[in-house]
Write a structure and sequence with these properties.
Layout (H helix, E strand, L loop, with lengths): L20 H7 L8 E2 L6 E2 L6 E4 L3 E8 L2 E6 L5 E4 L2 E11 L5 E2 L6 E9 L4 E10 L6 H4 L4 E3 L4 E4 L11 E6 L10 E6 L3 E3 L28 E3 L10
Parallel strand pairs: 1-8, 2-16, 10-14, 10-15
Antiparallel strand pairs: 3-6, 4-5, 4-12, 5-7, 6-7, 7-9, 9-10, 11-12, 13-14, 13-16
Amino acid sequence: MDVEWGYEGKRGPEHWHELCDWFSEGAKYPYQSPISLSHNEQLIRNSEQAQLFFHYQKEQFTEKEFKNTMHFVPFSHESYVIFQNVRYFLTDIHFHRPSEHVIDGRPQEIEFHLVHTSQQQKNLVVAVLCTFDLTAPELDKIDLTTEWDYPNHLQTFSPALFLPKERSYFHYTGSLTTPPTAGPVQWFVFDHIQRFNPDFLKEFSEELLEVNNRPLQEKKERKIYFVSKHSSADLER
């Protein structure tokens, strides 16, 4: 189903549920995303239930424009994470501006979503919030093995380059942040704010750089977990 939606006016977030029955049904899921997160709220800390393990490797991605942002889509789904003994394969990387989640009351300038899907078609999203910094390395210079082929919209890289070195994170159950906003989606939001060189965005058209973040949603007493700092080695096994 191809239903036109956006981030303002009659097709903006407050009207998504009115655009079609599919969107209306997704909006009925009670625990919507994104939400505001805080280190000072009541959190379930370092629970085994919230452990996430990364198995990322270098692979080829194609660059596509759709759904109001730029996406990097892997060809062969070689990278994955494990959550509660279930394997979720990386299926998409995209970004929102400004950030959709807010940590300790502070939104950031951009948020990357690394979207994963299990064989049972369940969704898990890893979110990384970033602040713009012209002195930060550009994405294509972070990993010396990265290969960028801009004319053909092809990139070869390890998705680990998007992740912070200090991997402490919030975990909660929510929804998709774009229509149909269905759930449940397992969310993992890193609390370490990455420094991001905005030069990376220069290749994209202006319409992809406009505001494309969904407003914050109510928490509704849902459980929020927090896993303390781990090194990348601790979370890769």
